[in-house]
């Protein structure tokens, strides 16, 4: 699902509800910003892992927890809270081979 498809889906849901004021669009934009942060955190976890090797102040090699794990959980919670506040469902896209113009 692309970022554009997600945003279009959320805006379409708002339109059906009659919630077209700038305030609602701004909240969708906040959601999309968090979507980007979520993607960056996920990429970091894929690249460095849940734990990664680092050097302590004394120069000893050690394993550290990747802080992106905790951040990812918090970002996901905030994204879900925004959807709940807007009264929206998770973005959906018809994967039946269409062009994505029939988002709900």
Automatic annotation (TrEMBL):
Pfam families: Terminase_4 (PF05119). It comes from the Bacteria. InterPro entries: Phage_term_ssu_P27. This is P27 family phage terminase small subunit. It comes from Tetragenococcus halophilus (Pediococcus halophilus).
């Amino acid at each position: 699902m692309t970022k554009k498809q997600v945003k279009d889906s959320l805006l379409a849901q708002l339109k059906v509800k009659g919630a077209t004021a700038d305030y609602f669009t701004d909240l969708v934009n906040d959601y999309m910003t968090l979507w980007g942060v979520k993607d960056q955190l996920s990429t970091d976890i894929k690249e460095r892992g849940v734990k990664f090797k680092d050097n302590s102040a004394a120069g000893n090699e050690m394993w550290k927890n990747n802080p992106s794990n905790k951040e990812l959980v918090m970002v996901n919670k905030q994204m879900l809270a925004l959807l709940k506040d807007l009264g929206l469902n998770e973005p959906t896209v018809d994967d039946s081979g269409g062009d994505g113009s029939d988002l709900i």
